[in-house]
Amino acid sequence: MQNKSIAIKIVFFGTPDFSVRILASLIHHNLTPVAVVTVPDKPVGRKKEYMPSAIKAYATENTIPVLEPETLRDPVFLKELRGYHADIFTVASFGRLLPKTLLDIPLKGVINVHPSLLPRHRGASPIQTAILKGDVKTGVTLMLTDAEMDHGPIIAKSKPYDIQNFGYKQLHDELAKQGGDLLAETLPKWIAGEITPQEQDHTKATFTKLFTKEDGHINWNRSVKEIDRHIRAFEEWPGTYSFYEDGSHKVRRVKILKGHASDQPSPGKPGTVVQEKNGSLAVCTKDNLFIVEFIQMEGKRPVSGDDFLNGQSPTLRDIFH
Fold it and tell me: Cβ(39)–Cβ(95) under 8 Å?
């Protein structure tokens, strides 16, 4: 349902696909921002061709002005931003901390859409971290942005959402949908003065980290449930990988693309490659077998676990490490 009861001048800050989905919800609810702020175009791929952020491409398609400051303290940028006379700024996965000079511009403050139930999982990677930690439920929080990371008072939360067995992509899309709907529902109430912000319980705050490619390396000495969460959390970035050493001691890097935990006890030391009772490719962990559904040898195309078995004919001397 579109919101036609109040006109709100919004400037939207965002960068990746998550923010695109939030912006799409605002447009759908007749809350189209007067401008979008994002990062400048960046070189992408082997050819280092400059490409716009996802939010810039989407905003341009919808004829929304786009600002791309090199620095958020640039006087020219700040003057242009003030010229929009926005009631409020909204932020969704922008990727930069906003300086106080910027936070002080809109009369009604700056609202951040954060994909966790704060104060749990503050920081850059709340979706991946929720999966890694084995959270049963998560959701979305709208908070007023202050000078500290994900620290400001809460103005709205979604209902806790059951996320057991979710992969990153599925959970990302669900939380983006929740966040967009919640923001569109909350903005008119906030502008009308119908919401009292609630301070976070900072004693219960937990923090996330920026992940690197090295975080994708699988440690087979962990439990099968931990490994399953690891692969689901990193299915998009940074991906999960191991090193496959066959009986001749040749070592090759492999990507573990998809799989699942089983309740079959591991018959060998962690990392040992076996066939489970139904004949599928499996790897021993600290406790039970992990069933590998899809795998990709370095320089090769992705194949199913069964095809990998047929092509490699592994023995109990073959290990992942």
Answer: yes
pLDDT tens by residue, 45-70? 777 788 899 999 999 999 999 999 99
- Same domain assignment for residues 130 and 221: no
Residue 116 marked as a ligand binder: yes
Beta bridge partners of 110: 89
Same domain, 272 and 296: yes
Determine if residue 117 is labeled as part of a ligand binding site: yes
pTM attached to this predicted model? 0.93
Q: Residue 119, preceding bond cis, omega within 30 degrees?
A: yes
Half-sphere exposure of 144 (CA within 13 A, CB side): 21
Report how far Cα 5 is from the mean position of its chain's Cα atoms.
33
**How far, in Å, CA of 200 to CA of 319, rounded?**
47
Q: How far apart are CA 256 and CA 220, in angstroms?
A: 12
- Structural domain for 109, as ranges: 10-204
